[in-house]
């Protein structure tokens, strides 16, 4: 693959298209490789860049949401994806939804017509030399996946089995106790259930609606990571002897072992986000909220990410990526999109934007940059690079990733509004000082 004097971008999804655009608008020559339509994936239907596969929504536009904050930050950085999304938006309440075909076509035309971009319609089976961005998405070809594993020495994840994540501030801590198995205190929060509460939860799991799987995703579940609702179907006591086993735990309120327990594990060091251990699920999102709020202490839980189970090739990024999205073992090679461990269209585009900026900077002899931790994009990249690699799961934009405000704010809505304003202001300053 002849690189010439520019950079290579592999993959023409939202992340790859945004990366190519950001590098090109900085005067860098870009060769963008996209294998469609010559080689199709099981999920795509067209050869357009930035084709939306699962949904036509880029998330809530409300400023008090993580997605709304990230949208505002991307606009500060002149995102191509955001510009095309707004041009081709369709009515969807508070969500930024688009006309899929018109949106993808607009992105394709603007990228392909840029004088600094050469669009090449062929599959890439090896990692490109020099400065490059790899943004091949959740359906990365087997040949490229093998090349990545050989370079990094890390296996790729080929099925995303993620449990829901909730905020600590939304938990009823009067019904929850801290403790690790066989020791007082500890790193976990424990939600104890009595016999009736446990049976009610299992019965709800048995009747809840699940997300339909695509044909190429069927049969990928493996025994060590089954959906919680699948375990419920195996018998009333299966969960109680599996992820909900109470062995080694004593409820300090009763002095006895609970009948069953749901453990919550902190998702980041600050302890403001918690993962429902063993509760990977394929339930529809509304059903997850309904069913999991039956767990004692989670009655008012705020879900910053719902559980998902789908085909998703992604890196164990905390072991191999910098917050700048550059590979630790090979400077100049950047990654973007879902393969970095972000979840969602908007987050994929955002990492593509940063990877494109940093690839252009690296080619020009400048150090890569990362937005401040007060920004949603900066916090997301720091999570991807700094999470616990032994429990790494994809993450979307949410306020739990941000550092707390300097001052205490009583209301949750007011706190989120202030976090939003701080994030956008910090990104505006970053755009003026570093991103250009």
Q: Can you describe this structure in just a few lines?
A:
With 436 residues, the protein is an alpha/beta fold.
Textual characterization of the structure:
With 436 residues, the chain is of the alpha/beta class. It folds into two domains: 7-158 and 312-435, FAD/NAD(P)-binding domain (3-Layer(bba) Sandwich), CATH 3.50.50.60; 162-310, Elongation Factor Tu (Ef-tu), domain 3 (Beta Barrel), CATH 2.40.30.260. It contains twelve helices and 16 strands. It has helices spanning 14-24, 66-76, 80-87, 100-112, 142-152, 195-207, 228-233, 285-292, 317-320, 345-363, 376-386, 412-435, and strands at residues 7-10, 30-33, 57-60, 89-90, 95-98, 117-120, 132-134, 160-162, 165-167, 177-180, 183-193, 260-266, 273-276, 303-305, 308-310, 333-335. The strands form four sheets. It has a six-stranded antiparallel beta sheet. Helix 2 (66-76) runs parallel beside helix 10, helix 2 (66-76) runs parallel beside helix 12 and helix 3 packs across helix 4. The model has no long low-confidence stretch (mean pLDDT 91).
Summed up, the helix count is 12
Average pLDDT metric: 91
Taking the alpha carbons of the first and last residues, their distance comes to 28 Å
Radius of gyration: 22 Å
| Percent strand | 15-25%
Q: Can you identify the CATH class of the largest domain? A: Alpha Beta
Order of helices and strands, N to C? EHEEHHEEHEEHEEEEHHEEHEEHEHHH
Low-confidence stretches: none
CATH architecture of the largest domain: 3-Layer(bba) Sandwich
